[in-house]
Write a structure and sequence with these properties.
Elements (H helix, E strand, L loop, with lengths): L9 E13 L2 H27 L7 H14 L8 H19 L16 E5 L8 E2 L4 E6 L3 E6 L15 E10 L2 E13 L8 E6 L5 E3 L4 E2 L7 H19 L9 H35 L2 E6 L2 H4 L14 H14 L1 H14 L3 E6 L23 E3 L8 E3 H14 L26
Parallel strand pairs: 8-11, 11-12
Antiparallel strand pairs: 1-5, 1-7, 2-6, 3-4, 4-5, 6-7, 8-9, 9-10, 13-14
Helix pairs in contact: 1-2, 1-3, 2-3, 4-5, 5-8
Bound molecules: zinc ion.
Zinc ion binds next to loops.
Amino acid sequence: MLRSVSGRGLETRQFGHRARLALNPAEVLKADDQAHAARTMWNLLHAWWQMIPKEKQTLANADAAIRQARQDIDFLAVLPAQAAQAVLKTYFQAWRNCWDARADAPNFKGRFRCAMAVDVPQGRDLNIRRVHRRWGMVNLPKIGRVRFRWTKDLPVGKGATRENRITGARLVKDALGWHIAFRVQTLEPQPEPHQGPPVGIDVGITVPLALSDGGTYEHGEWLTRQEQARLLDLEQRAAGRKKHRKPGERTSRRLHHTYDQIAGLRAKAKRRASDWQHKTTTRIADTYGVVVVEALTITNMVKSPRGTVEQPGRNVAQKSGLNRSISGEAWGRTVTMLTYKLARRGGTLAKAPAPNTSRCCSACGFTTPGSRETQALFVCKNPDCGWSGNADHNAARNILHLYRTGHALVPAAGRAVVRRARRAKPATAR
Ligand SMILES: [Zn+2]
């Protein structure tokens, strides 16, 4: 391992950085064409894979097949050769993930079901320069030199070395337009152990994050009143148009436009939510050395409210509203952010088992019926105790207590959460 000046070890860190691209309409069309070609390439590759005998399913044969396809099919030529190679690489990785039981088998990509994306696998072709306080320039193959929003110092130009550089990028399109995601690699000294105190965090809907030391992190609605009204209006308009469509009739341009406007507003709300999450988790990771959260299984919490035919669910409308609130808070993403942000600052994240943290008294440890008097108020019914306080605060104190008594799991620092299929092998040997 390399040593830094201070004597601490150095570690390479790989992360992504996403920036908005400023493309003119002609460039947007070129990027769209490339993304469609990349998707078609994937679909052709998948069709070829399913058709040929198993012993011929090799990387070399697949490579030859896509080279031939690029010659035979005119519109595939808009896709840069490197990006076509990247499709091949991703496709093989998808099969590897399937064979290791980390994911389902790869499938065809539908025009409206998949995200539009083009890979730029080689960083040296990008030739990134900062040209203004807020803008950078980047070379995109077969699109040209374009501007992107500069929001973070990137290792480019004279600042780039063999260890600190941009190794590649990916163009991605969402409802708000084309973006570029840079792959950044840096070499940094390992962090000193975090000296901050431990804290327990309870997640909820009325109070998004309640801390065991009494602090809370809250947010308002993501969309303004006007935006909410507009979203509702658009949704009703889309529903109305859809209802009056005859069977087999194509979705009109006008309806597609309404769908795009709805997606734009929803993307705006999502972006504001993730901005709040980033700011909050950064502040928490700066302040505390150990963060303890509940080990929640969100998939169980948002189980379908309708139930089965034999056992129909109760309070279906309320439960689906609650599900929407649970999913809207995106706790899983908060935990992921905390994990890597704490690891970078020398802190740790611990997970405590969830049951009873909201019903148990954090002063005496007893669970007494009826102690949670309202949504916000907790009053202990144990005659010898009688502690009262905020219910979320009480839960957060319980979570911290579980950690202090050694009932919490400490997940490996900085390792991303891998979503796996059932009966899965871990991504790497532990
Ligand atoms: Zn008590």
